[in-house]
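Below is a filled-in request sheet from our internal design queue. Each sheet records the structural input a requester submitted and the sequence that came back. We keep these sheets so that new team members can see what a complete request looks like end to end.

REQUESTER: design group, bay 2
PRIORITY: normal
MODE: inverse folding
CHAIN LENGTH: 277
BACKBONE (tokenized):
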């Protein structure tokens, strides 16, 4: 009986040791999984940081303050407050549009190319008559941030379906001027151009006001309908673009937004930047 009891105790001891080994192995496997997940998260974070760094390498941090307001600690740098801050509240640096040269006085394509080649973030505004199904301004924004490596650029879409030119003239400040645009894309659709005999005069007035904002103007002519008046107004748009040396994106014959973006980029002669490894 004593011998049997001794064997039972030895078996029980081996079982406990085996159980402890199994538990230790399970704990070790759990720790290994945690370490693997932590390593994967670290690798993903490093890759994300590298991607962000690659995208922003052509737009330096110093340039951001020239295009968008930024918080500053010293109120003495704020326009209109040369004597320093009156309190400790952080203030906004005012908008600086950059150089004073009027884009309308030189080639618009040259202005846009200089903008794309420089580090200062740009603001692009699309305004005018935008049919509901057209989404190419938003897709162009994606192209800017990826293909053209300009993640700090801003694209503002104020297209209003079935809006005439007079509406844009009346609300010019709210629809685009307040955004301090570097480039204004005036989209002229069938409704925009349906202002009757005064269409050409209205268009010239609008372009004059846009160029007075020190912005590069690009005209977009959507496909005309079958009417003689619509075709005549498209011809007037082309004539004004030619006389003023304004880029004209002709959307006739395009099938989708991808085609519109391709034609837009070809018209402006936009090419993705080339970076050495």
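RETURNED SEQUENCE:
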């Amino acid at each position: 009986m004593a011998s049997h009891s001794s064997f039972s105790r030895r078996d029980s001891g081996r079982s406990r040791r085996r159980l402890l080994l199994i538990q230790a192995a399970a704990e070790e496997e759990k720790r290994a999984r945690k370490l693997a997940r932590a390593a994967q998260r670290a690798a993903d974070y490093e890759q994300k940081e590298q991607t962000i760094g690659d995208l922003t390498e052509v737009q330096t941090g110093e340039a951001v303050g020239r295009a968008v307001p930024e918080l500053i600690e010293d109120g003495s740098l704020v326009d209109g407050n040369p004597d320093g801050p009156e309190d400790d509240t952080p203030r906004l640096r005012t908008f600086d549009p950059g150089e004073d040269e009027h884009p309308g006085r030189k080639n618009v394509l040259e202005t846009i190319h200089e903008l794309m080649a420089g580090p200062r973030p740009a603001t692009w505004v699309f305004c005018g008559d935008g049919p509901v199904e057209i989404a190419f301004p938003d897709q162009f924004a994606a192209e800017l941030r990826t293909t053209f490596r300009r993640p700090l650029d801003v694209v503002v879409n104020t297209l209003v379906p079935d809006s005439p030119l007079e509406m844009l003239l009346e609300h010019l400040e709210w629809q685009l001027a307040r955004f301090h645009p570097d480039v204004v894309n005036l989209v002229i659709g069938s409704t925009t151009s349906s202002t009757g005999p005064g269409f050409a005069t209205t268009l010239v007035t609008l372009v004059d006001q846009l160029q007075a904002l020190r912005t590069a103007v690009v005209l977009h002519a959507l496909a005309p309908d079958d009417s003689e008046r619509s075709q005549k107004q498209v011809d007037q748009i082309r004539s004004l673009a030619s006389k003023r040396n304004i880029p004209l994106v002709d959307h006739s014959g395009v099938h989708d937004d991808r085609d519109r973006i391709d034609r837009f980029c070809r018209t402006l002669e936009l090419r993705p930047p080339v970076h050495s490894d």
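SHEET NOTES:
- The chain has three domains: 1-57, 61-92, 103-268.
- Residues 60-105 have pLDDT under 50 and may be disordered.
FILED BY: M.R.
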